[in-house]
Design goal:
About 55% of the residues lie in helices and about 15% in strands. By secondary structure, the protein is α/β, with parallel strands linked by helices. The protein has an 8-stranded mixed β-sheet, sandwiched between helices. Helix 7 packs across helix 12 and helix 10 packs antiparallel against helix 11. The radius of gyration is 20 Å and the shape is globular. InterPro entries: 6-PGluconate_DH-like_C_sf, 6PGD_dom2, 6PGDH_NADP-bd, HIBADH-related_NP60_sf, NAD(P)-bd_dom_sf, Pgluconate_DH_NAD-bd_C. Pfam families: DUF1932, NAD_binding_2. It comes from Pseudolabrys taiwanensis.
């Protein structure tokens, strides 16, 4: 059966998901409005077709895959065309946002007559032959979206409230990105304190698995730090201001904010981290 899926936007994750679907005989649409030439080239390589917003609204599913801070704005931008469309798409929010933010998006979509699916993506952008990118989904239409298990995606339906998938994403990302911030912060503190070599040696000796994980995770964070700022703020909101860990994740967001400003160079913090892990 023919299937059309719209994905906004064709970033690394969106294009990766789009290519996986296109390889499985799905027509994949996207929006190139305001996007760079690099984004347009990435979309074309992935087999995605650029169309106007009105055509996006005619797809079987519309996947929102944007930076967390843009998720609500995208839903509001598309709401008029979704409302005007005779064919009601299923709007799938795949962004790293907290349950309250996911509910806010769901409320916007509810005014359009479209169904809403809350989704959390765990893993990197799909690569040909890979199976480590998973969609956790929740909501009344989640089982409908699970049909994409037959089109190359790995979709896992969660029982529970509408925003259960966002709770899953926030919890998982809080662990992985929280540990990354903690590890990088203490590597930098040890470097400033003159104990970097000793700390590295001890980690390798007594915490080898953790050190190997951080050696991959920390450099991978550099180009993504700007995206992780809003995500860690969402995680802080998810745990709640009444709990002390709220301040911990808010501080991690500020850490990534500073890392995003870092300029590569001999004295930069990224250079210090690379030296610590031997990169």
């Amino acid at each position: 059966m023919s299937l059309t899926i719209a994905i906004v936007a064709p970033g690394a994750m969106g294009a990766g998901v789009g290519q996986r679907l296109a390889e499985n005989k799905v027509t994949v649409l996207t929006s190139l409005a305001g996007r760079s030439e690099a984004s347009a080239a990435r979309a074309q390589k992935a087999g995605m077709v650029g169309v106007g917003d009105a055509q996006l609204a005619e797809a079987d599913f519309l996947l929102s895959i944007v930076p967390p801070g843009e998720a609500v704005a995208l839903a509001r931008r598309l709401a008029p065309v979704l409302r005007a469309s005779n064919r009601k798409t299923v709007y799938v929010d795949c962004n790293a946002v907290s349950p309250p933010t996911a509910q806010e998006i769901a409320d916007v979509i509810a005014t359009t007559g479209c169904m809403f699916v809350d989704a959390g993506i765990i893993g990197p952008p799909p690569q040909p032959g890979s199976a480590n990118t998973k969609f956790y989904v929740s909501g009344p239409a989640a089982y409908d979206f699970a049909r994409l298990n037959e089109r190359g995606l790995i979709v896992r339906v969660l029982d529970g409230p509408l925003t259960a998938a966002s709770a899953m994403k926030m919890s998982y990302a809080g662990i992985t990105k929280g540990f990354t911030a903690l590890g990088a912060a203490m590597m930098l503190a040890a470097t400033r304190g003159g104990s970097a070599a000793a700390l590295k040696a001890e980690l390798e000796e007594s915490q080898g698995a953790l050190f190997n994980w951080l050696s991959r995770q920390v450099p991978g964070m550099y180009p993504k730090a700007y995206r992780w700022v809003a995500e860690l703020d969402e995680i802080a909101g998810f745990v709640g201001q009444d709990h002390p860990e709220h301040a911990m994740f808010a501080a991690a967001a500020r850490f990534y904010e500073e890392m995003a400003k870092d300029v590569d160079g001999e004295n930069s913090e990224t250079a210090a981290l690379d030296k610590f892990i031997g990169r």
